[in-house]
Amino acid sequence: MMNLYWLAVQPTPYNFNLFKGLKLSKRIKFNFCYSYMQEKNLPFDFKEIISEEDYFFKKNLGVDFKIVGKALSSKNDFMVVGWNDPTKVLVMILRKLLHKRYYFWTDSVNVETTKSSNVFLFKFKKWLLKDADKIFTTGDFGVEKMIESGLASDRNKIVSLPFFVEIPEKSVLRNFNPAKETLQILQLARLVEGKGIYNTIKAIQILIKEGYKIVYSIGGVGEEKDKIKALILEENLQEHIILLGWLDAESKKRSVENAHVLIHAVDRHDPFPLVVLESLAQGLPVIGSKLAGSVSDRVISGHNGVVVKSDVQSIVNGIRKIFDEYNVNELSKNAILESKKWPTSLGLKIIEENIGSL
Fold first, then answer.
1. Please, which residues bridge with residue 5 across strands?
2. Fewer C-beta neighbours within 10 Å, C or N terminus of the chain?
């Protein structure tokens, strides 16, 4: 059995389902260690995956020397996540110099910021990744971004490991009659720049003036809340655009069930948002931009949603398709069927097939 130390940033919902699978693996002894304190109010109970052997980095002079010591042994293997802690960097340096296996996991790389970063740091990262046995990243989108960034060029070494969500036993099939109903569009996101909210509001405004019946509900909180609220009031859109605020699990569930489509037309790099995967799994078609990795990998226009660019006119055209061209019920059925191709067990299989001499 492989003794795998997964050096994470912190417990988050993104890999929770994968970690549960790793804990149950008969081929991998999964040790979960993290360098940032656990977030509060998470929707999952991490006690399921964090045992007494797993722990928050115990640092001395900024380094967890116990973990670094384990890196000297060939009996241990390491999955290093991110660059945020010197312990992780030291582990990779040691494993590289000692010619021992190590693996690296990263969210989809933002090519623009990576290429514009410090030249020495870029070359140092590239040097460490060169001898990593495998580089895991979020989906096919992540693989392409990794190659485009120049941090790694060997496609055979880069493994597509998307995020996984629980597939509900029963999902709500959406139906929408454009002649009789108001289209319920939902967005679940932090109220910050980059989420495409302003362009979506402008698109909704154009469509309403054209006579389309739409309600756009936004669930989330963030620094742009007051600015968004002021824009809604200024344009007299209170009946058509609703700020739901922070949603607990039950409120979020109701909002998703009452919606006809989810919109995620982000206007900047968004690695592999879970909200897209969760919505599709619950039968909610997605209107989204390819700047979001999970949209790029999972949404097909006319099949389980609509792929748009992030500008106002493209969003307008995408929403029009829901009214004029596409059948929401068919989109909803396909969203569920496609999601079932990505069970949590597939993540464990990808890991087991790509690490160590199992």
1. 31, 78
2. N
> Whose CA is closest to 64, among 31, 22, 96?
31
Q: Domain segments of the chain: what residues? A: 2-164+343-354, 183-339
The rounded distance, in Å, linking the Cα atoms of 221 and 41 is: 15
For residue 44, the model assigns a pLDDT of 64
CATH code of the domain occupying 183-339? 3.40.50.2000
Segment 207-226, tens digit of pLDDT:
999 999 999 999 999 999 99
Instruction: Give the pair of three-digit tokens for residue 279.
Output: 């919505």
Q: Which two tokens stand for residue 50?
A: 């964090």
**Residue 168: which of 17, 22, 48 has the closest Cα?**
17
Q: Are 196 and 265 in contact (CB under 8 A)?
A: yes
Contacting residues for 234 by C-beta, under 8 A, at least 6 apart? none
pLDDT tens-digit readout, 76-117: 999 999 898 999 999 999 999 999 999 999 999 999 888 777
| Pair 343, 164: CB distance under 8 Å | yes
| Of the candidates 41, 42, 87, 114, the residue with the CA atom closest to the CA atom of residue 271 | 114
Look at the block and give the residue holding tokens 């109701």: 254
Q: Would you state the CATH architecture of domain 2-164+343-354?
A: 3-Layer(aba) Sandwich (3.40)
Question: How far is residue 288's CA from residue 309's CA, in Å, rounded to a whole number?
Answer: 8
